[in-house]
């Protein structure tokens, strides 16, 4: 009888242990899910409130803050578009597009050189680029203003484009270099044997393999350039050249701000980045994962 009891205990103990582990796993999963749900609500609810309030009248925004609009004012979007949001939208698209193009092109070339070659100058350049990540934009505001004034670039789109490129290049180079390091050297060596040039190796081998991290860099730079406010306010004076973040400040009045129209402009400004993130989400996750794990 004692032998049978010991055998039954040995058989039941692993089962009890597995049940306890299963309960702990379910509890931890539920806690993680609850935390992610709360975090999602904290992020999505302000966006939902902004969209709903953009269809309200001025009085209803204050008198009925949390409810749905009693009357949907679609004309708020037409008023926002007529008050100049279309010019701000085009300026933001122009500045963002050119800054992304220059940053990604220069960043991939610099990352190729830093990942492929080894020398004292390469190491010094890498340290210099890493130091650029620590530069605070607010600290360099006055020197940048003087430099741009010297070259007559104040109140031009290139004042923003060149500034955005300068500040986003270090992060772009570090991200892409981390991916380029993982490319096997055998590919480039076989290409050299076949007569391929260094630029051909960059263009035909490294660049096609790094599409996910390149798209990740595009998304990160697009969010920065599209939403940047400080430089766009200081370097641009004329209303015709303002981007969306600084242009929306024109919608505010000293006595009475039409918040419905202002929120409509904010919704219009948010739509391109939301669509870009939804369209390229899989590339963003894949690029960050491959760059962080392999690099």
Automatic annotation (TrEMBL):
Alphabetical keyword list: Cell membrane, Membrane, Transmembrane, Transmembrane helix, Transport
Location(s) in or outside the cell: Cell membrane
GO biological-process terms attached to the record: transmembrane transport
Domain ABC transmembrane type-1: from-to ranges: 89-280
Stored InterPro entries: MetI-like, MetI-like_sf
Membrane topology: Multi-pass membrane protein
Keyword field contains Ribonucleoprotein: no
Family: Belongs to the binding-protein-dependent transport system permease family.
Protein's name in the database: ABC transporter permease
Organism: Bacillus infantis NRRL B-14911
Organism classification: Bacteria, Bacillati, Bacillota, Bacilli, Bacillales
